[in-house]
Design a protein that fits this description.
Helices cover about 35% and strands about 15% of the residues. By secondary structure, it is α/β, with parallel strands linked by helices.
Length: about 375
């Protein structure tokens, strides 16, 4: 005759051993299932989607059996969580190779196409707000800030962003793009804007390398790597504007790259070049005076195209440039990053770049 539990009227007595045996069966079943999933995961080469599919199946099965295996579910959930691979941080990744396997070489650059930045945003889903990117499968060899001196060149900027984002990603760089916009309509000062870009970029991230680029220059070969080298690097050595030749040996205009140490060694760029011309030669003189030399890619790899345009208003040739260039050695320690003054008016984070509008102060009379 079946015994009645006095505390639970009408309930049938169940032997304690039977309950334990049932729990043990579930434990063995789920351990076996979990072991199978883990084995499949490793055999498949670490396919995370496959692992997640099996994990979903386990979860659905647990839902169906939850009423009889509550404590067991908790144990297995913790075990699965421990086995689930964590997303890799940059520090955990292996370094990217010296030469990226993603490079394709010579590129076709056309300025007759219609560029839509919204479409470019969609085609560059790994670029985060402000124009920041870093490789997901390896640790970039360098952290690079790209600095663009800017004023009223929105159409040129569209082409620059359209072409450069895919190139920089194939080069496997950890990079950010900073457009330094000169506020107002006073005489343009390219070099001072580049100094400001250096300072402002370092406020956001520990960049090691700085590429200074005019907004109208596009590289024609992605093997022309936008990174820093043991010596200051002149990247735009073969421009269509000059018949794909270097105009003169001391030329350092267009696109250049300096490491943080190299930039500080020359006290940054001069702040006193107002209007067009001269600052590039001053920078070249600073590099030589500091005991460094200029490195360049070959003339084929270093090819680039310039967007044709009229000279901007308030960017007339600087009449003082030749006298200033002649005195670089005397002025470089007292005119540069150590005497830089400006005011940030506005910082805007767009999907493909950061725009920093600055008041650089008046031109000395």
């Amino acid at each position: 005759m079946m015994m009645k539990d006095p505390l639970l009227p009408g309930a049938s007595a169940v032997l304690p051993g039977a309950s334990l045996q049932k729990a043990c069966k579930f434990l063995v079943l789920f351990c076996a299932l979990h072991l199978t999933v883990t084995l499949v995961y490793y055999v498949s080469g670490g396919d995370l989607k496959l692992f997640q599919y099996f994990q979903k199946q386990q979860f659905q099965y647990r839902e169906k059996t939850n009423s009889t295996s509550g404590p067991l579910v908790s144990v297995l959930a913790k075990a699965e969580q421990a086995a689930m691979p964590e997303p890799s941080s940059p520090e955990d990744l292996a370094q990217c190779p010296d030469t990226s396997p993603l490079l394709v070489g010579p590129l076709r650059v056309e300025f007759s196409i219609v560029v839509d930045l919204e479409e470019d945003r969609k085609s560059n889903p790994s670029v985060s707000e402000g124009g920041r990117y870093r490789p997901k499968d390896c640790k970039a060899l360098q952290k690079v800030a790209l600095i663009i001196p800017f004023r009223k060149r929105d159409e040129h900027l569209k082409y620059w962003l359209h072409y450069l984002h895919p190139i920089l990603q194939r080069q496997q760089l950890d990079y950010g793009i900073y457009v330094i916009n000169q506020d107002g309509d006073a005489t343009f000062n390219r070099a001072k804007l580049l100094n400001i870009g250096y300072v402002e970029a370092l406020k956001e991230y520990d960049y090691e390398c700085f590429v200074f680029s005019d907004v109208d220059l596009i590289p024609m070969d992605d093997k022309n790597i936008y990174k820093c080298y043991s010596q200051p690097r002149h990247l735009s050595v073969s421009m269509d504007k000059f018949g794909f030749r270097l105009p003169y040996t001391q030329y350092f205009g267009g696109v250049s790259a300096l490491s943080k140490q190299q930039f500080e060694r020359i006290n940054g760029f001069p702040n006193n070049y107002w209007g067009w011309g001269g600052e590039d030669d001053d920078i070249y003189n600073r590099i030589i005076a500091s005991g460094m030399s200029v490195s360049r890619p070959d003339s084929v790899t270093g090819k680039c195209r310039m967007i044709r345009h009229d000279r901007d208003a308030k960017n007339d040739p600087n009449p003082k440039r030749f006298d200033l260039i002649a005195h670089t050695r005397q002025t470089m320690k007292s005119d540069g990053i150590n005497t830089l003054t400006y005011t940030v008016k506005k910082t805007e984070k767009f999907p493909l770049y950061t725009k920093i509008t600055v008041d650089i102060g008046p031109m000395p009379s």
